[in-house]
Amino acid sequence: MIIIYGIKERLNPIKAQLSDVIHRCMQTVLGLPEDKRAHRFIPMDKDDFYYPGGRTDAYTVIEIHMMSGRQVDTQKQLIKTLFQEIETQLFISPSDIEITIHEQAPYQWGFRGMTGDEARDLNYKVNV
């Protein structure tokens, strides 16, 4: 699951394109299939969204929640690919993007009536 926060006037017009860019990066780097897109957009009022100095109103926070198992180099590649693709396709500077990856053990995930460690039919690899 991916949660994206930003100032609503900047985030709302680009939600669909940003979702496409993020998902393509997830497919390319992690091998996720097309039907594994789970994005949640949180457009915020400017007076509710404080961000560090040196950033613009395009400042966007991307939280990636995933089951643990991806290698450090894979996670770093995902972050760098996201920076590059978002800048290239949406013209948002990497200084205006903050990305965090939150890993949870498979038993801490619940979907389709089971926990992640019980799932035997995932059509993608977690340990990449």
State the CATH superfamily name: Macrophage Migration Inhibitory Factor
Content of β-strand: 25-35%
Order of secondary-structure elements: EHHEEHEEE
The main sheet comes to: 4 strands, mixed
The second-level CATH architecture is 2-Layer Sandwich
CATH class (first level) name: Alpha Beta
Q: Report the mean per-residue pLDDT as an integer.
A: 93
Give a description of the structure:
- The protein is an alpha/beta fold.
- The chain has a single domain (2-46, 56-118), classed as Macrophage Migration Inhibitory Factor (2-Layer Sandwich).
- The chain contains three helices and six strands.
- α3 links the parallel β3 and β4 (97-104).
- α2 runs antiparallel to α3 (72-90).
- The radius of gyration is 15 Å and the shape is globular.
- This is Tautomerase family protein.
- Pfam families: Tautomerase_2.
